[in-house]
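re: ur question from yesterday

yeah so i grabbed the chain u mentioned. its 427 aa long if i counted rite. heres the sequnce exactly as i have it in my notes:
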Amino acid sequence: MSSFKLEDNSNIEGLESHSIVTQLANKDLATLDKENFIVFPQQLKDSDDLDRDNYIFQQKNGKTRTCNVVGIISNDQDEFHINSRFSKNDQQNYFLRYMIQQVLNYNVINNQLNQSQEMSYYDLLVFLFPYYLNKALAKGVYKEYVQRKYNDANIKGPIDIAGQIKNNIPFVGKVAYRTREFSYDNNITELIRHTIEKIQLKYNFLLLGSEITKENARIIHQITNSYSRRERENVVQNNILNSVKYGYFKEYAELQRLCIQILTEEKIGFGDDESQVYGIIIDVAWLWEEYICKITGWKHYGRKEGLATKNLFQKLGIENQQHRYPDFEDHGIPIDTKYKKNIDKQNDYNQLATYIHIMKANKGIFLQPTDNSDRQGLDLLGELYGGGEMFSYKFFVPQKYKDYPDFKNQIKEIENKLKVLDFNQVG
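ran it thru and got these structure tokens back, copy pasting raw so excuse formatting
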């Protein structure tokens, strides 16, 4: 199998006509999410950036480019690795790995994923499992009707003739029967249990990364009384044939799909059998925003439940109100995270100018990562008519390091500079 390396937000040259690129070009991620691609985060509506720029490959004006996604895409012949553009000098994708560990609370110094040369498709699946587990169980433990067999005197269903003949002749006061029960121990929870058992063999640290993950793994262990290692193949096949319906249980449908791929290590993907493309795709713009939230503690805005909103109009009822969502606010200053290389001087500028105005701020900040140490820090973009200034703050991603611990030490120094910075006192 041939392997090709690409970078996010970059032009593709020489591979524009490759079958994977042509099959996925201008195919939005909402479509791929329904066609067995693993797309992270699982709720596309959580990511404003994906809503606006939601392609793996975009063909426009005769050029083909990657967008705000990283991941691994493959068919039976070739494999594409779309890496962070900040990991040019290594195969390990340290910056991507570090952001995932921060956002998903994997505060682990030494583990096999840190030491491996490259994160494989399977590694990424396993790495994201706790996130999908916790999202699903936040809806409550999955419960469904299951068929049970009993042999006792408390008849609660149709008699099992074969079981009666086998076990209760001569008659000893018991009756074999079947019944349907609403149970926590079912195909879905058994599938999750088998996945947990497999992950524990090699990647147990992932299940110990947070108290929530540990508790959810404990709950699954507790309720799956019929678990048997020998039943793994049957459990997987039952889940393949009986997928969870979307709707309220969308999170369980996503977790089910992830578990099946982890347990089978088979790549289930998009397209017909002869030209099927599979993949695991990460919205790195979403990851960048969540990473900044994790390291700064700034007030976070957004459409998701629990995040702040900013009203556009005064004295309007809730039903007529328009909302705006700066990514962050620090001491009254709006901060808009942008992972992409270039800021849109129309849409992005208009957006930040709106935040400055409705928040009555004296400045607004674009926060972007950079690989150029000479460009790090705060730059004035311009002074607005009507008052206020617009800045860009470049967050330097280390490019020269010995190993992963060295990378982590360097980036923590950059983080500390950002944390102590008071935007009101600069500019």
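noticed a couple things. Residues 149 and 204 are 35 Å apart (CA to CA). also The radius of gyration is 26 Å.
anyway ttyl
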